[in-house]
Amino acid sequence: MEEEYVALLANQTWDLVPRPPGSNVATDKWIWTHKRRANGTLDRYKARWVLRGFTQRPGVDYDETLSPVVKPVTMRTVLSLALSRSWHVHQLDVKNAFLHGTLTETVYCSQPAGFVDPARPEMHLLQRIITSLRQEFAMKDLGVLHHFLGVTVEPRPSGLLLHQWQYTLDILERAGITDCNPCSTPVDTQAKLSEDAGPPVADPTAYRSLAGALQYLTFTRPDITYAVQQAATLSPGRPRGSRSSLTPVAEAEYRAVANGVAEASWLRQLLAELHSPLAKSTLVYCDNVSAVYLSTNPVQHQRTKHVEIDLHFVRDQVAIGDVRVLHVPTTSQFADIFTMGLPSTTFFEFRSSLNIASG
User: Which InterPro entries has this protein been placed in (predicted)?
Assistant: First the structure.
């Protein structure tokens, strides 16, 4: 068995990798036989490691099966040729001859029973990457991902839960409001903030530090983005042009669409580099009909001549099918949670779209 295992490794039969979710993993089996000489006496023990074929799925793990057999005419021809030319006939046995075939399919199988790598019972690839990184940098292995940059990662049956509970408590303690009462939404929809209202804060450095800390908290709490923006911006006004002047409004909305499309394009490129390319178009929703029209209309006219050329890359992305810009009613524009204070019912409805959940 040890000789067989060494031969398997020498032939690079497999790569140890984490089990991909939903993949079929073929189970293994050891077969022991006796190799005997021509006179029937025992020559040696033979162990073969094989996979249970019935655990593979036809059309997924294999398309056809075959077993190499010796063609009698080949044997007779070779022996006849050797005899006619007085060649010496020597016998060789290729170890693990079946391993020299090339599989076109990707087959996942368990490690050989009795030879599971104790250091890597589930993967090998991760350890290889860590070893390569250690050749370039001094590193400390912290084990399974659990905490990074103030963000806690906890495993859940459905995946991972990312939160900043301790970071939030630290912010409340720094602000001296650990005993404050919670509210249903992070901002008062009726409040009107002004940079001139009330006396200046005694310590602007502490205020700015808290505002920056709250901005980082939006990493796992995007639902507080608007409230944090109100606290971090000196002039929180939201001027809007007259609806009678369509062009400036349409340009502002179109610029927002362009920013969204640029982010979507970057994400698509990132996924492609991670070998997970998107097969479908990315949907970008806008509640302005004119901006949606501009994203698909290739005609340059008087109203859009002032729009910068670089913004028209949206049309290119739409034309090649990477992005689709669709209209969404204002009542269903989830992005409003980032730009305005909302009533409790609407706030909780829109927050659910951000995939925010308690532990």
Answer: DNA/RNA_pol_sf, RVT_2
